[in-house]
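Sanity check. The docking grid for thymidine-5'-diphosphate depends on where the pocket ends up, so I'm generating a full predicted complex first rather than guessing from homology. Inputs follow.
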Amino acid sequence: MYQRKFIVIEGLDGSGKGTQISRLAEALTNRGISLQLTAEPTLHATGGLVRDALGGITKRSAAELAGLFLADRIAHCQNPHDGIAALLESGITVVCDRYYYSSFAYQGMDLGLDWVMSANLDCPAILKPDLCIFLDVPTEVADKRISLGRTSREIFEEAETIERVRRKYFEVFGILSGTHNVKIINAARTPDEVFADVWAAASEIFDGTEK
Ligand code: TYD
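Predicted complex below; grid placement will be based on this.
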């Protein structure tokens, strides 16, 4: 029996998060770890409002969007049925596709980091992950992968924005260094090579925690 962990996977759009999350889920399950995959924006009502704004269906100011992501994250953590807190409480490890590091990088660009970071980090309803894996790709690689996979782009998927987001992520990880367990992995390699590093980072937090 392993202790349950809360793992977040972050990366630019087009960084290959989906592939690595599937592989991580398979490997953890094979190791006998009970697991739930989850993602932000969520499937809760707040997540729907966020998606409408990302797709340009509803126009939202940057502050409104940050507030919606925050509300969505609180629901994500605290929902009594499928919330992250409830899952961890019942011994289930959670692997989450994006979390507050995305808010810091994307909403922090327009609003400044201070407000976005303190609103999330100081909120007692929002849980701190045990590990954040950042899949890093150069902007050109992200841009190319988005072009291959889509017919239309969301509001944060234009090339200049992608570059600004990447820089913001690195600024955020600098600020959080020493207080958050962040592993930055070069994701501009083959899926196998990337996964070797993802698995090493994930295994590290489970080692020695069997109970
Ligand atoms: P989506 O297409 O749902 O997922 P992904 O790109 O991860 O496959 O897009 C989510 C978008 O929302 C992405 O552009 C990043 C953005 N985002 C924020 O701006 N702030 C946040 O807090 C989160 C969680 C996501």
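Relevant for the grid: The mean pLDDT is 93.
Also worth noting: The radius of gyration is 17 Å.
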